[in-house]
Specification:
Keywords: Membrane, Transmembrane, Transmembrane helix. With 352 residues, the protein is an all-alpha fold. The protein has 13 helices and no strands. The chain has one domain (46-334). The chain is globular. Mean pLDDT is 77; it is low at 1-32 and 338-352.
Length: 352
């Protein structure tokens, strides 16, 4: 944390966005296109990113089930994503410049080292996919994720650790958050009466809460790097490192899988993660960390997957369908324009 004076009741001890801080010119232009996106386009893109999250949960959950090993599945997902990003960054000069800007931001203390650790939350998220998604079913897994994500988004936005600074909890945002939680409760109500291990829901719930912090940290790195690609690379490098350590410990006690599945789609989780994490890193400033569009995308895609390509014994009931529709209503409510002014251009105060 910083060594600045202790925060007051409305302050936080983390670096904040200030309306008087103006970024250097080379760092400003890269954010103009995202900032000028119409809000409805930004929200639509967050829905797509949320849908991809549900798709990744299905892929990684099924891979872990086939391997009977969540740690190997998680390393394959994160590690393959890291390899893809390393190739892209090596081939794209703008990506290499973004990585260089991250180093510069760390050196001049515009970026704190702990802001690079968003990948730890991503690693936990992918691990819970392998542990719980195949058991719970992707729809039930996803509603637990989005419950934690919705609450975490409120906390992160109000505290102001995301790249857009503090976002007051206005009436439409508060109502939308409540409506989203009601949607989650409705969607899960019918399933908890079955043989589903309810305590297992705590894993994706905690991962969802952590994802809100991950989005904020990745957004801060993107600001410093002027590159969503560089922020995504940092995310995957940190997450892969953490998962390799977990795998090394896990393998000493349970050993390694006897064989690997041959279906190529089971190894696509990393590529899917590259896409949606880059999208969220780029969009977080425009729409805030409380991204109810992500929630709607996750729920809708999870529902479609369980209806069209079921892999668990848990039937999709009217409660799950109704909860998804209610979540979509929450997205519409969250899109109401705020009267408060938009956040100032991204500039992070030096961390002292």
């Amino acid at each position: 944390m910083s060594s600045t004076p202790a925060p007051g009741p409305t302050d936080v001890a983390t670096p904040a966005i200030s309306s008087t801080d103006v970024p250097a010119e080379p760092h400003r232009h890269a954010h103009v296109e995202v900032s000028r996106l119409p809000m409805w386009v930004a929200v639509a893109l967050t829905v797509v990113s949320g849908a991809l999250t549900a798709v990744q949960s299905r892929i990684n959950g099924e891979l872990a089930r086939r391997l009977d090993d969540f740690a190997v599945a998680a390393v394959i997902s994160f590690g393959s994503g890291l390899l893809i990003l390393l190739v892209v960054v090596a081939a794209w000069p703008a990506g290499r410049r973004g990585v260089g800007r991250v180093r510069e931001a760390l050196a001049d203390r515009r970026l704190a080292w702990w802001m690079l650790l968003g990948g730890l939350a991503g690693a936990w998220f992918v691990a819970t996919q392998g542990i719980a998604a195949a058991v719970l079913g992707v729809a039930l897994f996803t509603v637990a994720i989005v419950a934690g994500q919705t609450l975490g988004g409120v906390v992160v936005d109000v505290i102001g650790i995301g790249p857009g600074g503090r976002r007051p909890l206005t009436l439409p945002r508060a109502a939308a958050a409540i409506l989203a939680l009601a949607a989650v409760g409705w969607a899960v109500s019918a399933q908890v009466e079955t043989a589903v291990p309810v305590l297992l829901l705590l894993l994706p719930f905690s991962a969802g809460f952590a994802v809100s912090w991950q989005q904020a940290m990745n957004g801060r790195v993107r600001v410093a790097a002027s590159s969503a690609l560089a922020a995504t690379l940092v995310n995957f490098a940190v997450g892969t490192t953490a998962l390799v350590v977990v795998l090394a410990v896990h393998a000493t006690s349970v050993g390694w899988p006897d064989s690997m599945p041959t279906e190529p789609w089971l190894y696509a989780g990393g590529a899917v993660g590259c896409v949606f994490i880059a999208m969220q890193a780029g969009l977080v400033r425009r729409v805030g960390v409380l991204v109810l569009g992500v929630v709607a995308g996750q729920l809708s895609a999870a529902l479609a997957l369980d209806l069209l390509l079921p892999t668990s014994d848990h039937a999709v009931g009217i409660a799950t369908v109704g909860g998804t529709v209610l979540a979509l209503a929450a997205v519409a409510l969250s899109g109401i324009r705020r009267r408060a002014r938009h956040a100032s251009p991204e500039a992070v105060r030096p961390v002292r």
